[in-house]
């Protein structure tokens, strides 16, 4: 009977193991579903909408194949359409029935818009090049853009001959596929999604079958043992012969024969242990073959998410200009270009990534370094770690962002404003300043929400942004006598203290030698560059302004002459070493303030600043 149970266990174990393995192999089915994309009219770009990417749940994988370099990028659909506004491209969307449809879009040069051309449905087959002769006759005259390195993309990929990009994009984002922006985009493009084909009973069947097999082996061993013990019928024993003494010499001579019995028993026992090890190895191998997560029932409950503070997006607010990863990449590119321009003293190169007060200060520095050998180069632009990113919430252009970077090596922090003029332009750094050591930043919206830009003449702040530079300049000029003095926080304002201390020192030195023959005066006023402001969560704003400080030295005696004996900086910029009319020297300040909203009891507070010499000239 034991043999019957052992055989039954073997059969059941085999059925269970085979069923479990079959679920993970021949019965499992495909792991992905793929949709190919085709276009009848070749175009330099292929825009795949988020609706196509999300027609099936799960992560998406983009596959594009062609000859040479293949480029792909993703970003918000509205941004990509804006970037493609003046070029021909194939637009891939879903029709009302959920089928993939490709339209050739060619801009109307006269109207400045875009028109849709031929349609092509995409099925499961490979995409073909289509008819190269079809399309708008104006396509050859359209401008071509290189998609590589655009600040508009949230991320980009570039590979040779075949490109495979893992994605997980929402419906409001799209993917752009191209080569170099001139040659047609790859014709062999497909999107694939993973298919959920978990086999929750495969693991239990395989492991259960292994356990049943082990039980069968044990039953088989017990059956053999029982059969050996009960071999044949038992009979009555015959009379034993008379016991005789054993001859020890004979025993010694035949000890090999006497020891043969125990040795044989040891060999049999060893064989039984080896036989018993085989099922254990088999069980272990089968156990590990079914250990993947989707081979077992998921009985555990999902973790309960921890509630976090949320920020409500104002109704009607537009999308933020950049993501944090995008901002990191943009600032790194700006810093790289600025460093190259600084080394070469190349103002044209600097102008590709710098603007406003930052570029004006750089241009002056390049001129001075070209004439003064030991003149210091500008401090490098900090890039990481990026602590704060406050993008403007705006779908149009120009669009901007504010960022704060902390440098651990130099223990300094930098606050900056970068602006993109249009969809095709790179972001340019227009304001940059060092944060005060004890700066307390106001509460800001998260990066994924962004902030609205405050109009220059906004009446919702205690002072409109376009008045801040003039008011602060008045405080610099008149101190406590200024009518704006009580509106600005004096404690912690190191810029105001530094300017006052420097002016007093220079005036004292000048009066020691030239008070009877000349005069030194100081004035401050708004600079040439417009203010920029982004809203904070307390209805206030961070405001960046430009203030110019001008030093004027004039002779008060008609026979006197102003000489620049120990001032190579002014001498280089003015192009003269003496003047009978005098010299004026201008320094430019980039200043960031926190301006509270109307009704607040807070004062306008200095956040950070930077100062650079801007110009010097002979008074005419």
Automatic annotation (TrEMBL):
- Look up keyword Transmembrane and say if it applies: yes
Where do the DUF8094 domain residues begin and end?
Answer: 319-617
What are the record keywords, sorted?
A: Membrane, Transmembrane, Transmembrane helix
Q: Looking at the record, which segments are called Disordered?
A: 112-139
Residue spans of biased composition, Low complexity class: 112-124
Q: Which residues cross the membrane?
A: 201-224, 274-296
- List, alphabetically, the InterPro entries matched: DUF8094
Q: Does the keyword Transmembrane helix apply?
A: yes
Q: What's the protein here called?
A: DUF8094 domain-containing protein
Annotated source species: Microbacterium deminutum
């Amino acid at each position: 009977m034991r043999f019957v149970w052992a055989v039954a266990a073997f059969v059941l174990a085999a059925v269970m193991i085979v069923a479990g393995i079959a679920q993970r192999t021949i019965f499992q089915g495909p792991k992905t579903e793929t949709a190919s994309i085709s276009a009848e009219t070749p175009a330099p770009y292929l825009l795949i909408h988020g609706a196509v990417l999300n027609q099936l749940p799960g992560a998406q994988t983009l596959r594009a194949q062609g000859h040479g370099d293949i480029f792909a990028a993703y970003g918000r659909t509205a941004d990509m359409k804006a970037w493609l506004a003046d070029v021909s491209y194939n637009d891939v969307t879903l029709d009302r029935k959920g089928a993939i449809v490709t339209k050739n879009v060619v801009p109307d040069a006269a109207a400045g818009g875009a028109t849709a051309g031929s349609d092509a449905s995409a099925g499961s087959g490979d995409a073909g090049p289509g008819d190269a002769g079809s399309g708008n006759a104006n396509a050859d005259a359209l401008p071509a853009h290189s998609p590589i390195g655009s600040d508009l993309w949230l991320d980009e990929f570039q590979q040779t001959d075949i490109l495979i990009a893992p994605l997980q994009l929402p419906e409001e984002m799209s993917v752009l596929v191209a080569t170099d922006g001139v040659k047609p985009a790859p014709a062999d493009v497909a999107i694939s999604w993973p298919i959920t084909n978990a086999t929750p009973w495969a693991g239990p069947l395989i492991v259960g079958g292994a356990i049943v097999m082990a039980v069968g082996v044990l039953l088989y061993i017990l059956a053999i043992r029982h059969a050996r013990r009960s071999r044949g019928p038992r009979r009555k024993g015959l009379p034993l012969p008379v016991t005789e003494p054993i001859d020890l010499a004979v025993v010694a001579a035949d000890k090999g024969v006497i020891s043969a019995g125990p040795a044989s028993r040891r060999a049999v026992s060893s064989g039984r242990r080896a036989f018993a090890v085989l099922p254990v190895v088999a069980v272990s191998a089968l156990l590990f073959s079914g250990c993947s997560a989707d081979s077992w029932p998921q009985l555990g409950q999902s973790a309960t998410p921890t509630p976090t503070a949320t920020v409500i997006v104002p109704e009607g607010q537009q999308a933020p200009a950049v993501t944090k990863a995008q901002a990191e990449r943009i600032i790194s590119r700006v810093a790289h270009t600025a460093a190259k321009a600084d080394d070469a003293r190349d103002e044209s190169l600097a102008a590709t990534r710098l603007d406003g007060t930052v570029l004006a200060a750089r241009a002056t520095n390049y001129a001075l370094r070209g004439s003064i050998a030991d003149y210091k180069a500008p401090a490098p632009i900090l890039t990481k770690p990026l602590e704060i990113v406050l993008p403007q919430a705006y779908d149009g252009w120009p669009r901007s962002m504010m960022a704060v970077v902390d440098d651990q090596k130099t223990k300094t922090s930098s606050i900056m404003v970068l602006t993109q003029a249009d969809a095709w332009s790179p972001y340019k750094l227009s304001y940059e300043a060092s944060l005060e050591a004890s700066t307390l930043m106001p509460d800001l919206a998260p990066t994924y929400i962004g902030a609205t830009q405050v109009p220059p003449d906004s009446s919702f702040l205690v002072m409109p942004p376009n008045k801040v530079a003039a008011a602060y300049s008045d405080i610099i000029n008149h101190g406590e006598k200024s009518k704006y003095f009580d509106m600005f926080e004096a404690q912690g304002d190191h810029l105001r203290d530094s300017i006052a201390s420097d002016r007093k020192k220079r005036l004292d030195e000048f009066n020691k030698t030239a008070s009877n023959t000349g005069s030194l005066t100081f004035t401050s006023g708004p600079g040439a560059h417009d203010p920029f402001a982004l809203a904070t969560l307390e209805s206030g704003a961070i405001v960046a302004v430009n203030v110019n400080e001008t030093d004027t030295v004039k002779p008060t005696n008609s026979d006197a002459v102003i000489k620049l004996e120990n001032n190579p900086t002014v001498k280089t910029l003015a192009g003269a070493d003496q003047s009978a009319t005098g010299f004026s020297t201008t320094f430019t300040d980039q200043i960031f303030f926190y301006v509270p909203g109307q009704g607040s009891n807070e004062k306008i507070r200095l956040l950070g600043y930077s100062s650079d010499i801007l110009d010097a000239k002979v008074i005419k």
